[in-house]
C-alpha cells in the first residue's frame, strides 16, 4: 500500500498502533506492493490484479515469487480475500510460509491458467482455505471450513427416520 505522502515514513509507527485501511485504493498503488507472511518474511510482490467484472470485485492478486530480477519468477493467483492489509506497516499479509507458497498452484508469465474455470478456482481457493464465491450473495468472509463447499449438510437423525414430524407412522 504505497503512501502518497513522501513524509509519511519519517516517523515509524508503533507496531501495536491501529491505522485505518483506506476504503478505496487505486489499483496502480497495489501493483509492486510486497506481500509478507505473519512472521514478517517477504513472500513476493503483487504483479497484477484480476477483476471479476460480473461481480464488480477484485478476484485475485497475482503474486510473483522466486527467481532473480524477474527471471524464472513463478506467479501465483492468490484469492484477494486471503490477503490482509496492514495499514500500519503499509503492506499486505498472507498467512502462508515460504514452503507453502512454493508448493501452491502457480504458473509462469507466458502460460496463464483459465481463471474462470471452476475447477481451477476450487483448487486455488481450497489451497488458501478461502471459500470460492460464485453468486453476488455469497459471502467471501465465511471461513472455508464453515461452508457447504467443505461441509455437506447433515440430516438430523429424527428427520431421517421420520420425514414427516408430528405425524404418526
What number of domains? 1
Q: In the CATH hierarchy, what is the class?
A: Mainly Beta
Structural class: alpha+beta
Order of helices and strands: HEEEEEEHHH
Summarize the structure in words:
With 169 residues, the chain is of the alpha+beta class. The protein has one domain: SH3 type barrels (Roll), CATH 2.30.30. It is 14% helix and 22% strand. It is built from 4 helices and 6 strands. Strands 4-3-2-1-6-5 form a 6-stranded mixed beta sheet. β5 and β6 form a beta hairpin. The radius of gyration is 20 Å and the shape is globular. It starts with 26 loop residues before the first helix and ends in an 8-residue tail after the last helix. Mean pLDDT is 74; it is low at 2-17, 135-144 and 146-154.
For the structure shown, list the relevant keywords.
169 residues, six-stranded mixed beta sheet, alpha+beta, Sporulation protein YlmC, PRC-barrel domain family, SH3 type barrels, globular, disordered N terminus, PRC_barrel-like_sf, PRC-brl_dom, single chain
Give a summary of the structure in a few sentences.
The chain is of the alpha+beta class and 169 residues long.
Secondary structure: elements and pairs:
Elements: H1 27-30, E1 34-36, E2 42-52, E3 57-65, E4 74-79, E5 83-86, E6 91-94, H2 98-102, H3 118-127, H4 157-161
Parallel strand pairs: 1-6
Antiparallel strand pairs: 1-2, 2-3, 3-4, 5-6
Amino acid at each position: 500500500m504505497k503512501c502518497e505522502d513522501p513524509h509519511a515514513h519519517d516517523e515509524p509507527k508503533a507496531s501495536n498502533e491501529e491505522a485505518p485501511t483506506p476504503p478505496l485504493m487505486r489499483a496502480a498503488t497495489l501493483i509492486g506492493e510486497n506481500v509478507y507472511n505473519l512472521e514478517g518474511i517477504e513472500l513476493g510482490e503483487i504483479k497484477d490484479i484480476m477483476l471479476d467484472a460480473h461481480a464488480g470485485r477484485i478476484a485475485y492478486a497475482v503474486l510473483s515469487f522466486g527467481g532473480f530480477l524477474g527471471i524464472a519468477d513463478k506467479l501465483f493467483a492468490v484469492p484477494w480475500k486471503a490477503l490482509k492489509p496492514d495499514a500500519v506497516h503499509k503492506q499486505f499479509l498472507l498467512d502462508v510460509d515460504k514452503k507453502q507458497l512454493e508448493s501452491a498452484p502457480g504458473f509462469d508469465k507466458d502460460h496463464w491458467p483459465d481463471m474462470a474455470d471452476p475447477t481451477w478456482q476450487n483448487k486455488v481457493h481450497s489451497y488458501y482455505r478461502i471459500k470460492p464465491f460464485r453468486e453476488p450473495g455469497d459471502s467471501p468472509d465465511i471461513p472455508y471450513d464453515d461452508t457447504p463447499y467443505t461441509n455437506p449438510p447433515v440430516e438430523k437423525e429424527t428427520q431421517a427416520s421420520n420425514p414427516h414430524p408430528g405425524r404418526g407412522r
